[in-house]
Amino acid sequence: MQQAIKLFAVINFLILGLSHVFQHRAWTEFFVALHGLGRPGAFANGFLSLFAGALIVGFHNVWSGIPILLTVIGWSFVLKAAVVFLLPEWGLRSMGRVRVENSRVFIVPGVILILVAAVNGVFAVVGRGQGMTLRSGSTSFSAIRPSGVTCFE
Description:
It contains 6 helices and 3 strands. The protein is mostly helical.
């Protein structure tokens, strides 16, 4: 199931990241519209974070190595959702800072999402047992083995 969640994250983060980069004005309009709805808009934003975050932490609660990145992102989504549901005014304040004039602020999170998708994509492939071996002199290092164990030979 961890492989399925990694694939879920790769697909979602890549598409959302590219969208943030190339459609930053549309994202601005989206959050301005959510803000205009008041608390229901804050809740709608919270549901988006809760769904992705709960799915990630429910099936990928890994606390070691590079995979911890996805777990931390998942828990941060859950935390954001909890704050928005318990303190919707906080979510509204956050969305209220978004302005069409500063729509480019969505580009940086977009690039981060693309990088996270790339890292998860590499580890999703490697985790399938298609490990990468690096050799240097008499020492070889298998980055990931099918069992998910990192080891030196």
